[in-house]
Specification:
This is OsmC family protein. InterPro entries: KH_dom-like_a/b, OsmC/Ohr_fam, OsmC/Ohrsf. Pfam families: OsmC. There is one protein chain. By secondary structure, the chain is α+β, with helices and mostly antiparallel strands. It has two domains: 31 residues, no CATH class; 98 residues, GMP Synthetase, Chain A, domain 3 (2-Layer Sandwich), CATH 3.30.300.20. It has three helices and six strands; from the N terminus they run βββαββααβ. Strands 1-2-3 form a three-stranded antiparallel beta sheet, with no helix packed on it. Helix 1 crosses helix 2.
Amino acid sequence: MECTINWVPSGGMTFVAETGSGHVLAMDGAPEGGGRNLAPRPMETVLAGTGACAAYDVVLILKRGRHDVRGCQAKLTSERAQTDPKVFTRINMHFVISGKALPEQAVQRAIQMSHEKYCSASAMLAKTANITTSYEIVEA
């Protein structure tokens, strides 16, 4: 995996990342740090990537279990350290899973497997953050 980050000088503190798969992602700093608030902050992208990694796992595990999953939303809330480096210290991932007749046990298992075995991003962040999960199931 690779990624190239380029600063856009005319954008204040805007950076553009090009991923190894050829996709582009813009990031910007807060106005008080010289940014113009044109894109997500770098740490917001870390949090978003972690949520997407876990949601991907949950959907894949449910689909492989032949469950009729129709939607998956991960809502992440976090806290960061007060001093530099301002690492994540607490993260909660709340999943809203929709589908037809989804067994609660299967949803619990998918979330647990992602958290304990498959999600690389949350495994890394768990070195500094207490990560908790919660969920709700919505009948589609």
